[in-house]
Amino acid sequence: MKILEGSFQCEANTFCSQRAGIEDFERYDGEALLTKMAATPIFREAGAQVVPLLYASALPSGMVTREAFEYYKERFVEMIEREKDADGIYLYLHGSMYVEGLGSGEEWLVKAIRQVTGEGIPIAIALDYHANLSEGFLGQVNAVQGFRTAPHTDHDDTERRAARSLLACIQKNACPHPAVFRIPFLGGDASTTDKEPFVSITKRLQELDGEEGVISCAFFNGQPWYDSAYTGNCAVVSCLDSKRAQKEAMSLAKMFWDGRENLKLEHAMTVKEAVRASLEQKEGLLFVTDSGDNTTAGADGEGTLLLREYLKKDTKGVLVCGVLAADVVNDLLKEEIGTIKEICLCKGCREKQRIETTCQVVLKKKGIVYGWAGDEVGEGVLLAAGNTDLVLTNARAAFTTPEHFARMGVSLEDYHVVVIKMGYLFPKLKTFTENFIFALTPGVSSNDFAQLEYQRLKKRMYPIHMDITWEEIKNQQEVRL
Ligand SMILES: [Zn+2]
Description:
Blueprint: E1 2-9, E2 26-28, H1 30-36, H2 40-45, E3 49-57, H3 66-81, E4 88-93, E5 98-99, E6 103-104, H4 105-117, E7 123-127, H5 135-138, E8 143-146, H6 155-172, E9 179-183, H7 198-209, E10 214-220, E11 233-239, H8 242-259, E12 268-269, H9 271-280, E13 286-290, H10 305-313, E14 318-324, H11 326-332, E15 340-350, E16 355-370, E17 376-385, E18 388-393, H12 402-408, E19 417-420, E20 436-439, H13 470-477
Bound molecules: zinc ion.
Zinc ion (ZN) binds next to loops.
């Protein structure tokens, strides 16, 4: 048995102006790829020969350039053409890669692969929970698994489930097409899986995992900062019996719909309230998340809105962390510690989140921007602007773990309030404190979806349209069922 495996990932926020190009992807191949992918041991234990294709992964970003997509897609196609005797293909994708001028990257990747392989061999996919899945994608694949945690902690489990799904297809000599049931729901940072309806959905998915005839089952939250006709939640089930797959997908969707009102943002406040409430905190540490400029949801992190608010207050013990300002940082890196300089952030901008801000700063420290994959991606500086401290970086950064602060040389014990470019608090930050305020800031990752200017998403979506009924949703599916 020969199985081909690879990965191609970039979560796109289509409201961002920046693009992910060829060089933005981190690449692995050969033995390094096989070691990196959690599916490999599952295939090997089943006696399969595993052939590495390509692993190319970029940080959440704006759309992927057409050039970058074609470049990597061609690498996959060339390698698959050399392995025409393969028994199955396993891919770990994101599910919300949007390619400039093309749409779903996942769709066009699997279509290109099918051009080579035909319909005869199964393709199984592992996906992020924030996947937006087009019909064109689902029509080409046979098994689909997705993360069941948000914040995500089950990447490897999801890969292993998808690997088992592929083995089930091969062993049963089946290439079923997954059934999808779509819910017109925009789920942002409120859709964490520690609460209902996700607790019940996860329980049901785990039951289905063990049932005879079920090849794969998944529930996707979608990613709301992705403007497409197919943006939104969906349940995707693949069974040997397609009628049963439809029934199970609908049942999962109904479970979600009935529990949707539990999905409320916790600790959410307007900008003014967030600043006031955070400064009243005098003991211990509190994070304030700048949710509209969330780099983990693809935003660039250049926003100065919260920085300006805290500069006005000029209160001791405040750190505004991880503002991207490459030119300013590169100039400051040439200076000695203790240098006093005037800096200008977001020069010439007067947007809601990016506002020209000039201040006098003292250079306190220089540090390293720690990337998502444990690598060094850039440099940063710790500055004092009056009583407020700030960290500026020359690379897009997400301070999601204690290591990120340590590499920057920042000691969080020095602060009461730390502002970060994030939505919900990442689990590893809870080692510092569980106290946080979710600041409802504007921007490309805003949780106020009515503010986003959707062009391609034309249908009525909850919660923009609160009057959507289950009957209306069921009627929308009829074309597919
Ligand atoms: Zn995700």
